[in-house]
Design goal:
Membrane topology: Single-pass type II membrane protein
Main location: Golgi
Structural class: alpha/beta
Subcellular location: Golgi apparatus membrane
Keywords: Glycoprotein, Glycosyltransferase, Membrane, Signal-anchor, Transferase, Transmembrane, Transmembrane helix
Number of helices: 18
Organism: Sphaeramia orbicularis
Strand content: 5-15%
Length: 455
């Protein structure tokens, strides 16, 4: 914009000079330059000097189409709601009522707006605050690795990374090969702009409850093992997860594990054992999943190496030593191959590996069950356990899982888990915004009490 304006002014300037020179010659074609001629010549030279200065300005002044720094703070990235989150936490009836009205008409944040914002990385990092991050010495010396398996809602992925962000961490994004072109472009924009974010080198078409979901995490894991970052723990996330602890809190709590992993692992029920006792085939499904593993009548051989099956979830917090061990173990490789035709293998794979004799941080086979409420990796509210174990869902249910509403804010923050699932801005955008604000305040508070380094 600035270069175009300068060029236009320059052209008008020379046009003006040429016009007056021609006019003067027409008026006095044969006359000698008198007093009026001298005045004209003086004016002509002054204007010529001005044009030359304008030319120099256009050539050597820095050209930028960005707004001034003060304006960047006002750039609208994703929609913010006018709500008092402290009052929501205290269950103030007026503020909760306001939030219920707001969530009836949520503002959808388009993937295209994130694509536009990341087209200028300097501008993106300034607008979202990535360029001015202070980390404690404890965070700097204790980097974490993340595997993000995602397929939609680009802004939710960015907000998830932002809430977990530390320059010392490393983030691998695995997007579904079936994702929209806009979503893929937005993920590539994030990886281009943020130096510690990258796209997995191998991508899967992910189908619900199939081996592809497990492979997506394994692909990121393989890349992260090769990374130059000396991360201490690997944590996997999906697009509907959100942290309940700030990065500085996570580092502090992970240190207390002293190399042990944190994940759910229990004796499987008879129903869940059927998932691994029979061969499953990936078949077309006439609903949202497109394809899903279907049970056949063919019995499977027992697990290799006498492995005893345990049940858990797809979510984990794994130590670097544990990851290095299973990444190079032939026993784990055989178990993975055996699991390929099971139903939802990610829900027994990690839970079983944690019980393998000799793995770093081994959980003995005779150790009592570690349930989802005991493992702090993910806080999930199941519909069939509401009222008996935890309060009723204030959002809505999807496949028997609660998509959280603002009524869960206090419960989520006070329960003690590190992460929770599920969140959806189309169901309740207010709780996501309130979690963001709470985590940002916590991060600033903890870092203000520690020795920090700013980037």
């Amino acid at each position: 914009m600035r270069s175009t304006s300068l060029l236009f002014s320059l052209c008008r300037c020379f046009q003006f000079l040429l016009y007056h020179l021609i006019s003067h010659q027409r008026m006095r074609p044969c006359a000698r330059w008198g007093r009026s001629g001298k005045r004209f010549l003086s004016t002509f030279l002054s204007l010529l000097t001005l044009c030359v200065l304008l030319l120099i300005s256009s050539k050597f002044s820095p050209i930028s189409e960005r707004p001034p720094p003060a304006a960047i703070q006002d750039i609208k990235t994703f929609h913010k709601y006018s709500i008092n989150c402290s009052a929501i936490y205290d269950m103030d009836p007026v503020e909760v009522g306001k939030s219920l009205v707001m969530r009836k008409q949520p503002v959808e944040d388009k993937d295209a707006s994130l694509i536009n914002l990341t087209s200028d990385c300097t501008f993106f990092m300034k607008a979202r605050g990535y360029d001015d991050v202070c980390i404690s010495e404890e965070e700097r010396d204790y980097p974490l690795a993340y595997s993000l398996v995602v397929h939609k809602s680009a802004w939710m992925v960015e907000r998830l990374i932002k809430s977990l962000y530390s320059p010392s961490n490393i983030y691998c994004i695995h997007y579904d090969k079936k994702s929209s072109a806009e979503f893929v472009s937005a993920m590539e924009g994030l990886s281009r702009c943020l130096p510690n974010v990258f796209i997995a080198s191998k991508l899967e078409s992910v189908y619900y409850a199939s081996i592809s979901r497990l492979n997506a995490d394994l692909n990121c894991m393989s890349d992260l093992v090769k990374s130059q970052v000396k991360w201490k723990y690997l944590i996997n996330m999906c697009g509907q997860d959100f942290p309940l602890k700030s990065n500085v809190e996570l580092v502090s709590e992970l240190k207390m594990l002293k190399g042990a992993s944190m994940l759910e692992t229990s004796k499987p029920t008879e129903y869940k054992m059927m998932r691994v006792q029979y061969h499953h085939e990936l078949k077309d499904a006439h609903f949202e999943y497109l394809k899903i593993p279907m049970k056949t009548d063919q019995m499977k051989a027992p697990p290799p190496h006498g492995i005893e099956i345990f049940s858990g979830s797809a979510y984990f917090v794994l130590s670097r030593e544990f990851v290095d061990h299973i990444h190079s173990s032939p026993v784990v490789k055989d178990f993975l191959a055996w699991s390929e035709d099971t139903y939802s293998p990610d829900e027994h794979f990690w839970a079983t590996l944690a019980r393998l004799p000799g793995v770093p941080g081994e959980i003995p086979r005779n150790h009592p069950d570690i349930t989802d409420l005991m493992s702090r990796t993910r806080l999930v509210k199941w519909e069939y356990l509401e009222e008996n174990i935890y309060p009723h869902c204030t959002g809505q249910h999807q496949r028997s899982v609660c998509i959280f509403g603002v009524g869960e804010l206090r419960w989520l923050l006070d329960y003690g888990h590190w992460f929770a699932n599920k969140f959806d801005p189309k169901v309740d955008p207010i709780i996501i915004q309130c979690l963001e604000e709470t985590l940002e305040k916590k991060q600033k508070l903890f870092r203000s009490m520690a020795s920090t380094t700013c980037h």
